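User: I'm writing a tutorial on reading structure tokens. Could you give me a worked example: one chain, its sequence, then its tokens, then a sentence or two explaining what the tokens reveal?
Assistant: Sure. Here is the example chain.
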Amino acid sequence: MNKDLSYAIELLNLCSMSGMSIVQAFETVGRSGQGRVYESFEKAAHDFAAGISRNEVLERLRIRIGGPAMFSLVSSLRRADENGTPLAQVLHAQAENARKLELAERMKAIELVPLFIVIVTVTLLLPTIVLVTMVPHLLVFMKTAW
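And here are its predicted structure tokens:
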């Protein structure tokens, strides 16, 4: 899901930079994919269309998706709204942050690869090598009298 959220934030950034309103950007993100993240953005666009306040829509979106990246996005959008900061600037920073989080997750998965290699080696390869080297000696030992 973090990959979807990262992509959604990046798309929000692009939509905002192209001059779309936040409602249009949410609609575009909602239509751009399938899954919980995209459905949540689509529901948020419908909430905007229904006349629900921006803060309420963002809070609902945060609850639907959850997670630290979403909390950060909603907090930043609220601060931008309060301070009058351009959304494109805020979304650009959030997209960069989401990319860094996604990269950190991938690096964490990559760090586990040596552990899996050790486990495979110990469970599959080592017993085979022991059998191949020990069995002939045991057979010779058993053939020659005790």
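What the tokens reveal: The chain has seven helices and no strands. Residues 6 and 99 are 6 Å apart (CA to CA).
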